[in-house]
Amino acid sequence: MLLKIGHATTKYVKENMGILIGLMVLCIVISLINPDFLSTNNLMNVLRQVSTNMYLAIAMTMVIILGGIDLSVGSIIAVTGVVTTMLIALAGFPVWLAVIAGLLVGMIFGAFNGYVVATTIIPPFIVTLATMNIARGAAYVLSDGKPIRVMSDSFNSIGSGYVGDLVPLPVIYLIVFVLIAYLIMNKTKLGRYMYAVGGNSEAAKYAGINIKKIKLFAYTFSGLMAGVAGVVLSSRMFSGQPTAGNMAELDAIAAVVLGGTSMTGGSGRIGGTIIGALIIGVLSNGLNLMGVSSFWQYVVKGVVILVAVYADVVKKKRDQISALA
After folding, report:
1. Where are the transmembrane segments (predicted)?
2. Whole-model pTM?
3. Are 46 and 245 a contacting pair, CB within 8 Å?
4. CA distances (Å), 13 to each of 16, 107, 248, in order?
5. In percent, how much of the chain has pLDDT > 70?
């Protein structure tokens, strides 16, 4: 067992050596500029912040491996949070029931995306762009554009609680979901089918793979993860906010691309996405510690995405040349 774990760890490090070095260099530079970065409280805060993005990113990895994209996750965060807090604060629902209802809302939006993408010729970019506007509009309509406060300790502890007064609960959820996603992508037929569909959908079709079901699952899972992020985020903010999750899809896509998943589909790993999300989280935290304006942070993240995609294109061309040679 120990040998297997050691082999898996070695393989993981080799596969992600480049971005691991990038993460380490980033951490060293930030800690030299601001030593507070390495404090226990700050590191736990980074993990808490990263967890929200990583919920989205692990599902986005599946969607992008299929050759798709999901621009609606940020808006789904907002509508999920609004629905959950409305049911608790205004309708008197028990917390557990309101949370389930919120997650179902996320899944419904995700399933809608998956159904339309799988059954029509409308590009995923357009489908999820439309859903992004629908979900955001629904969040504003339901909340009348105002935050919905929830003063419930049981609800607020979902996103603000700790295990052993040290590890934030959102990090525990993250570990569970990462494990689930890893098992799906590496240990099941469903995961292998995703790579097959993303690599060559026509060949996958002739091989008897039900492409529609694969796409429906990936987008539904993406909606579910956005729902989880919405519940956790609204719990942390003690309210459902129609503006929540704004541009969250940017961070999720950045994490996936930085993690080595190809935007053209067919290749990528959950393990790489984890490191990509950590880079985005550490970068955001470091810029905050250095007092960099949030406006400039958008610029930096945009540049990071552009560079990452360019690197992916260059790598693919080199691989093609090597294969021909």
Report:
1. 12-34, 54-79, 86-109, 121-142, 162-185, 216-238, 250-283
2. 0.90
3. no
4. 5, 34, 28
5. 95
Q: How many helices (H) and strands (E) does the chain have?
A: 14, 4
Please spell the DSSP secondary structure of 227-249, one letter per residue: HHHHHHHHHHHTEE-TTTTTTHH
What are the E-state strand segments in 127-231? 148-149, 162-163, 167-168
pLDDT at 304 over 80: no
Sequence letter at residue 314: V
HSE of 154, CA atoms in CB hemisphere, 13 A: 9
Tokens, residue 197: 């569909």
CA-atom Rg of the chain in angstroms? 20
Burial class (CB in 10 A: 0-12, 13-18, 19+), 179: exposed
Kindly tell me the sign of the dihedral angle through the C-alpha atoms of 250, 256, 259, 264. negative
User: Alpha-carbon distance 216 to 114, whole Å?
Assistant: 4
Residue 292, helix vs strand vs coil: coil
Tokens of 12: 């993981």
Average pLDDT over residues 85-101: 94
User: Greater confidence, 155 or 294?
Assistant: 155
Chain CA centroid to CA 292, Å: 24
By DSSP bridging, strand 167-168 and strand 162-163 are: antiparallel
Identify the burial level of 322 via C-beta atoms within 10 angstroms of its C-beta, where 0-12 means exposed, 13-18 middle and 19 or more buried.
Answer: exposed
**C-alpha–C-alpha distance, residues 147 and 243, integer Å:** 9
Q: Which amino acid is residue 147, in one-letter code?
A: P
Of 275, 271, 267, 73, the closest CA to residue 181 belongs to 271
